[in-house]
Amino acid sequence: MEVYIKGxxxxxxxxxxxxxKFLEEIxxxxxxxxxxxxxxxxxxINPIQLRRMSKLIKMGIxxxxxxxxxxGIETPGAIITGTGLGLVGDTEKFLNQVLDNxxxxxxxxxxxxxxxxxxxxxxxxxxxxxxxxNTYSHRGFSFESALLDGMLLIENKDAENVLVGGFDExxxxxxxxxxxxxxxxxxxxxxxxxxxxxxxxxxxGEGVAFFSLTGKKDESNYAQIKDxxxxxxxxxxxxIETKIDxxxxxxxxxxxxxDLVVLGLNGNVDTDDVYYHLVDNYFNTNYxxxxxxxxxxxxxxxxALWMAANAIKHxxxxxxxxFRKENFTEKPIKNVLVYNHFREVDHSxxxxxx
Amino acid sequence: MxxxxxxxxxxxxxxxxxxxxxxxxxxxxxxxxxxxxxxxKTIHKGVLPVSEVKLxxxxxIERAKLDKNEPFTRSTLIGIIAADEAVKxxxxxxxxxxxxxxxxxxxxxxxxxxxxxYHDLLTSNxxxxxxxxxxxxxxxxxxxxxxxxxxxxxxxxxACSSAANxxxxxxxxxxxxxxxxxxxxxxxxxxxxxxxxxxxxMILDKEACKPFDENRRGLNxxxxxxxxxxxxxxMVKKSGKKVLAEFTGYGNSCEAFHQTASTPEGKGAYAAxxxxxxxxxxxxxxxxxxxxxxxxxxxxxxxxxRAIEKLFGDDMPKISSTKAYTGHTTSASGGxxxxxxxxxxxxxxxxxxxxxxxxxxxxxxxxVTELLENVKVDHVLSNSFGFGGNNSALIFxxx
Lengths: 354, 399
Fold this sequence. Notes:
The structure holds two protein chains of two kinds.
Chain A: E1 4-11, H1 47-52, H2 55-71, E2 78-82, H3 88-100, H4 109-113, H5 118-127, E3 132-136, H6 142-155, E4 161-168, H7 172-178, E5 207-214, E6 223-232, H8 237-250, E7 260-263, H9 273-282, E8 286-289, H10 291-294, H11 301-314, E9 322-323, E10 335-342, E11 346-353
Parallel strand pairs in A: 2-3, 2-4, 7-8, 7-10
Antiparallel strand pairs in A: 1-5, 1-6, 4-5, 6-11, 8-9, 10-11
Helix pairs in contact in A: 2-5
Chain B: E1 5-14, H1 20-28, E2 34-35, E3 50-51, H2 57-63, H3 74-89, E4 100-105, H4 111-123, H5 136-147, E5 152-156, H6 162-175, E6 181-188, H7 192-200, E7 224-232, H8 233-239, E8 245-254, H9 267-280, E9 289-291, H10 298-312, E10 318-320, H11 323-326, H12 333-347, E11 349-350, E12 372-373, E13 379-386, E14 390-397
Parallel strand pairs in B: 4-5, 4-6, 9-10, 9-13
Antiparallel strand pairs in B: 1-7, 1-8, 2-3, 6-7, 8-14, 11-12, 13-14
């Protein structure tokens, strides 16, 4: 598709707000879960409003403004977001009130803010944007659905430019619950050493990122996002290979044309196999990975897209993000494929090109 | 690429019936689903009336022939029943014969079980199988797995316009050749969580709701699930199957005004309806019936009413809200009302707006109050407006 990334605003557990830098100062986390680095919210939101806002709304409005400034756009033609769990903090707050007070003496604020479309609605209010507005909440397809929706709007000329974002937050209370599943590591690790811990589960992170998509080709764009595909419950690695083959063929590419593959490796021994399979048996190129920097969460595809777009823009993959470093070869980065999966159920592929 | 989108199947479950047939029967008999709370465990039992699906979870599990030991939320169960009915009504034998997707809308997700077991999840290892049924995607994936749709699976979550937005995405994906067929709609079960949330906003009527009435006092919550089967022109030509209606227009617009309120003049509602009309290529005067969002709150009925007046001017179609039948089924409402709109076209009927007595001072029109039979219903506009300013409008037409 003729869709380009014109601007990005990414608030994450790394220093990602300054778009002129690409992973220059790395933050190593050694906590139970990775939290985002807050920008100076006062730059984006007036102080009176700021006091009443929950963390994710602050992050959402700020990231959208960073993104639009980066893109040089004032009002987008559409706002679309994706989130796995929405505003977890507000949900917990209202749920605890309902349960602890036996449905009495309740305040509405946390409830109002706990619907998943709060961010897209609040961003629309902040930008006075009355256009198309949508929110998806579907596990590992939350951001991917939003991205697909935005790309279709541009492809069909329903909008000239679209603001697409993803957001998720992690709270201590929610972490204490999901620790009871096998999706979260029991041990606290150094995040940068994520792949060395050959145990079940991953390390949870969070983040908010917005992307400004446009149909207009321009030198200043980060990259073209050519296509996206979601694959639901593939039977085995062979089916994934077939789907990637079909996806590349549809875009007139062969796997040899891919200069960089960004992999969603998350250190979970139970589910990382497919990534190793693709590296060992399918592709033969350079690789990057990112969940040791961002942690894992439903909309972590935003961080992957940010990394792929920046790899093209900067024509570089920072050392810390290189996977199989010893085989990494210096070459122009033209075509980048992102492959990520959520719990081996929701698999997604993005194709970016220079 | 298919320019036209056809509805070939419908499925519904709500407080007025467990399937399409029962739903139509209740509508004809002016039988509302709004009664005292029976299934939800809440202190509001006996105080706030709601429209519950009239089956317990055990009965739902039995009806869908599911495994009792699996962690199913109530939303998932009603979703499975409605989606399965839609697939069967479309005469689909092999769901994998073409690229079939499933897009559902929900906001409360698996909260009905989360709120029941939350303290256990925090303090013990009991009921931990419900940790992963909490999010919005769980129900969608279980419904998709039940009917076998695999090519694309996603969930919209825009509060009360969720189901409408899932149908819009489904139609667009077919138009772009990404899918041949989509099962799209929405689900929502009642929870203490959102019932208390709405209650803190003071928009729940302690009596049966009265949409578009001068003395309206708020909405009644409902639960339900409804799905449409949307197919491309090519698919319909190939199979020669019966088309129930054509999905001719849709619009989505944001109010960008307030998180829980709409502008008094209904700016977002107007924009969504206008866009749907423009997309369909129809004139305002072509619309025979508007199935309004009409929740019965002060704010909605005024702003929606004004937006309708502005759009239609002197060509006012018949208007009614069916919320007094089904309650406000929130995320499912766009699906529930899409099914009702299609039934209106199929049966040449316009449904009454129950409980209406007194004309609203601010509006020039009054809703239909009796069942109208043997009337021309070729084009129906159906509105869904959500919290956060998410307004969507759909148009269904006779094929």
